[in-house]
Amino acid sequence: MKEFTFRTVIIIGAFALGFYLLYPTFADLQNTKKISQELVKISDLIKQKNPAISENDLQKKLTAARDSLMKTDPSIISNREKRIKLGLDLQGGMYLVMEINSAKLIEKLAKQPDDLFYKLLKEAQEETKTSEENIVSALAKKIRANGKRMSVYFDFGDITASDSEIESKLVQQETDAVTRAVEIISKRVNQYGVSEPNIQKQGSRRIVLELPGISNMEEARNLVQKGAVLEFKLFVKPQLAFNMMNKIDKLLAGTDSVLVGQDTLKSKEEKFARQHPFYNLARYSQNQNYADTWVKAENKTKLQDYFSRPEIKKIIDEAGAAFVFDAKPETNKEGSFYALYVLNSTSELTGEVITNAISRVDPSDNKPVVNMEMNDEGANEWARITGQNVGERCSIVLDGVVYSAPVIQEKIPGGQSRITATSTEEAKLLEIVLKAGALPAPVETIEERTVGPSLGQDSVDQGANSALLGFILVSIFMIVYYKNGGIVAFSGLFFTILISLGVLAAFHGVLTLPGIAGVVLSMGMAVDSNVLIYERIREELETGKTLRAAIDSGFSMSFSAIFDSNVTTMITGVILYQFGTGPIQGFALTLMIGIIASLFSALVFSRLIFDYFVSKGQMIKLG
Amino acid sequence: MRIFHDLNVDFMGKRNMFYAISSALILIGLINIFVRGFAFGIDFKGGLEVALQFDKPVNITQIRNEASNIGLGEVEVKTFGSDRSILIRSEIQEVPNNLFSQIQSNVEKTIDASQPGLSRKIIDKSSSSITYSFDSTKALDKIIQDLNTADFQAMKTLDDSSKTNLNVRISVSDWIQSNLKEKIKDNNFKVLREERVGPKVGQELKKNALFAVGLSLLVILVYLGFRFKFSFAISAVAALFHDIFITLGIFSTLYGVIPGLNLEISLTVIGAFLTLTGYSMNDTVVVYDRVREYMKIYKTMPLKDVMNKAINRTMNRTIITGFATLLSVIILFLFGGEVLRSFAFALFIGIITGTYSSIFVASVFVLEYANRSKKKIEF
């Protein structure tokens, strides 16, 4: 008996692991169903109360309601994070590939462009539309062909720079612009509240953006296509800011206790939540020199919803203020918090005046700093602003979020400012942000795939149904053909699918429609290992061997065929995964996992069952 | 149950017959490929594709007529799955100049009707949108609402602090949709899916796909050369080319012949080709494995007999696995939905040719090679 213990433990462990890994997916399906039922009720309620509500506002309210429903039980969120993620083709959403519009960027970078320059740029743009060549090198060639040097049009601080030096500087600018665009777009997407977005740089000039479950395609397009605005804003005096927040807190306490009441908090906290709905969400620190508050990441949308209410908007407008969040959260053991600042609603200066920004480590004190340069017009304004506000903070706001709020140490007359950062990463980020003001990153969409939610649901249903049907039919066939052995093959098949999906969930793999096809196909191929073994056992039996000997040699003789054939399929899987895009990658992923799972199921799982029955003296019929 | 018992067919002796069958199939395919070519999907060709689902069954001829009269040149219209869904395709991705000004004037008419006398100026204009700036912020919401009602995509821009800018999208897809909405009033539709692939991207995807197929062939060649003998590896890859050519030929031959079956070469179909590469190899390797085994046991038996014996002995497995896999592929084909249909079809053809070639082609090539080289292959 002992010879089986180890293998049995492994197999039971694998089964348990499979179920454990798939449980969140199952739970999430149930939760989603419950939440959407709840949301239908809420939406009816809102419509009843306010029949004239616009579709947009209703959606916003529902999003906030969904967020608070998700929070009622922490397991909902943890299950959601651990579930098998569906690809864009299954849950609907948007896939975008964007490319930096180099022509626009070059045009911006050029000094004193003349008619010839514009003509050459246009030609270069046309030529590179369908070719592999970079527009920079195409333009450089044209400028040279016209007997001019690159330095006539471009000046990167060194007028003696050679053509190739300028060329590489321009390419560098392109890369920087892409980095900037990624930063800006990811911030916007996060603010907009897309769940599980995926933003990636592809090569040096492209950005790939995946926005699952987006309902308003137009807003999504706007998110990515518009340029960003950089502003310098001063803070509202702490006393005034607290006055305003107190007013908001009072107003909310009078009107809004229903939403807060849903949270099941302990009585003391609940009381505070009821009396101070605003401060309950936006916690102030002990340091009363600043009127900064801290907001838990998941409460951001709720607060923004408050700010958009007309009566609260009025209070904010009267104070001439604006609530602005910090760009990055700070995490402690309670969760991640965003700083919420009270800034002047008007900006002191906008980013167009910035001519350059460079991050580096200051050799004198080894601190990471960013040096910012402004043009003459900006420098004059900047001198005035800094002169009047020494000791105050000035925030750097890009696209409505604060990236830095340095204290003004002294009047800065020449437009050359130095901002101290806490880390080199922060300094690098700040450089990107400041450059976004000087040089917008014009991007254009070169590939766009949008799948509506209804088509996604259809695909899920069709995929799931055909997978189930395939499983049933293949199992029936195996049982009819191999009798008992077929049942072993059927359990092996079940095991294969369980492990495949479990592994997919564990590695945060994405299930796409071709991915489901991969599962269906790997079912067909998973039985192949069983077939190879069974046919071999039959052959061995025919030569007059005992059942036990036939099983032994059946497994060992078929091993090389099983191994070699699975390796070749694996090779194509790996290559598909490496060079495929989106959905195809999903297919390759499930195929690869399926191959490994089916190998395990045939060589370990089926073997154990055979050995076990033979040792008990029972027969396994192979048809 | 057992399909074949002690099968003993002289497959190798009949190889001239298989040569004839295979050559005929490949020839038919090649002729069609050269004469008719392939229908590439927008993945490789670039272009715009919109799938719409109507509330009621649609008259496809009517939509075809409407779509060809909206200034976009040739617009392809076909049904997509059911009689309520249609697929519209255009190779144009940006609104042509003459149409742009027409759409622009429509936009401006709508704005004038919404807020007569409000002054505006155009601050930015690209091939896909116009940005207006207005004097006052108040009317903006009303204008947006009216523009949206008139099927334009309008919105406030994010990047202005004065909040007076309005961005209107000018796109081929919007133009098609607003025209259809206007002409077909009694049947509403929603957008199921919208895809746009730039010409440059299309070329790159094509290149990547060819590269992936080529690379996987090469890696398999090396692996089989290492596990078996070079002659086996090269024959297996030749058999694979045989499968791919026949499947491609069938795709070209049957394109447009079977109604409801869209046999365009898309990214997904390339994925299917790669899969059948794996499958066909899988099959071939199983036969090779048996040949290798018998060559070690029956050292004096002629190669031809060894191969016959190996193929006969593995025939049961070949048929059963082929059948089980075909079963799941047929189900995908029938119930997997529109998107997976061409994928499943490629696999269906591929599995049949893959099974055929692993029995009749791959080993035959090894035999021919051995006969010609006169050198005895030994493991």
Span between N and C termini of chain A?
27 Å
CATH T-level topology of the largest domain in chain B? Multidrug efflux transporter AcrB transmembrane fold
The radius of gyration of chain A is 32 Å
Oligomeric assembly: heterodimer
Topology:
The complex is a heterodimer of chains A (623) and B (379).
Chain A: H1 2-49, H2 55-71, H3 74-82, E1 85-86, H4 88-91, E2 93-100, H5 102-109, H6 115-128, H7 135-145, H8 163-192, E3 198-202, E4 206-212, H9 217-225, E5 230-234, H10 238-255, H11 258-261, H12 267-275, H13 277-281, E6 282-284, E7 293-296, H14 300-307, H15 310-318, E8 321-326, E9 330-332, E10 335-344, E11 349-350, E12 354-361, E13 368-374, H16 376-388, E14 394-398, E15 401-404, E16 416-420, H17 424-438, E17 443-451, H18 453-482, H19 484-506, E18 510-511, H20 513-542, H21 547-579, H22 582-615
Parallel strand pairs in A: 1-18, 8-15
Antiparallel strand pairs in A: 2-4, 2-17, 3-4, 5-11, 5-14, 6-7, 7-10, 8-10, 9-10, 12-13, 13-16, 14-15
Chain B: H1 15-35, H2 42-45, E1 47-54, H3 60-68, E2 75-80, E3 82-90, H4 97-114, E4 120-125, E5 129-134, H5 140-149, E6 153-156, E7 165-169, H6 172-183, E8 189-197, H7 199-227, H8 230-254, H9 267-297, H10 303-335, H11 338-360, H12 362-373
Antiparallel strand pairs in B: 1-3, 1-8, 2-3, 4-5, 5-7, 6-7
Helix pairs in contact in B: 1-8, 4-5, 7-8, 7-9, 8-9, 8-11, 8-12, 9-10, 9-11, 10-11
